[in-house]
Amino acid sequence: MMVATTERTRTIPRTTPRPKTREADRGDEFEYFLDRDARREDTNGFHLLLLGQTFMKPRMTVPYAAGALSMVLEMDDTTATERASFANEHGMSCLGNWQRDEALNNAKQLSARDLSVRVVPGVKGKQDWQGSPANANPDGLPTSV
User: Fold this and answer.
1) How far apart are CA 145 and CA 96, in angstroms?
2) Quick check: 122 and 46 in contact, CB under 8 A?
């Protein structure tokens, strides 16, 4: 037989203060966390990634995701379907490269349509497939024939 208690339990007050977190320290909800001393600049642009976890959601399909990509990013249907299929099969797909503010705005719009996306800083590369910032001045780079 159980006896009901008449005494209320109380919560023990916290002895250590909680660390104060500034919005700038945490980054945006679509960016991975930043170190306190890290800076993100717009010089290299930012990649918008479609994550494979998008397709773990109930009723999420490649055609629906492709339609959202077409509408938000103004991507043609064929490319949007390819990017959505790639993310579904391989875990993520790079949707493109934008300035930080535009990439975050696109991420918010895609997230509102139930797509899981992340924004990561871009890097300068030396290959054709790595985008134009690296190839703007290709002095010293070998040319393929």
Assistant:
1) 27
2) yes
Two tokens, residue 103:
């990439």
CATH of 26-126, one of 3.40.50.2300, 3.40.50.300, 3.90.350.10, 3.30.1390.10: 3.30.1390.10
End-to-end CA distance of the chain: 88
Tokens of 71: 């509408």
| Element of type H or E holding 92 | strand 92-98
Domain-wise residue ranges, the chain: 26-126
Q: Where are the alpha helices (DSSP H) in 91-145?
A: 100-112, 132-135
The model's pLDDT over 88-133, given as tens digits with 9 standing for 90+, comes to 999 999 999 888 889 889 999 999 999 999 988 876 666 555 555 4
Residue 90: what are its φ and ψ, rounded to 5°? -115, 0
Query: Side by side, which strands form the sheet with 117-121?
Result: 92-98, 46-51, 117-121
Residue 3 corresponds to which tokens in the numbers above? 């006896």
Pick the range with the lowest mean pLDDT from 16-25, 62-71, 83-92: 16-25
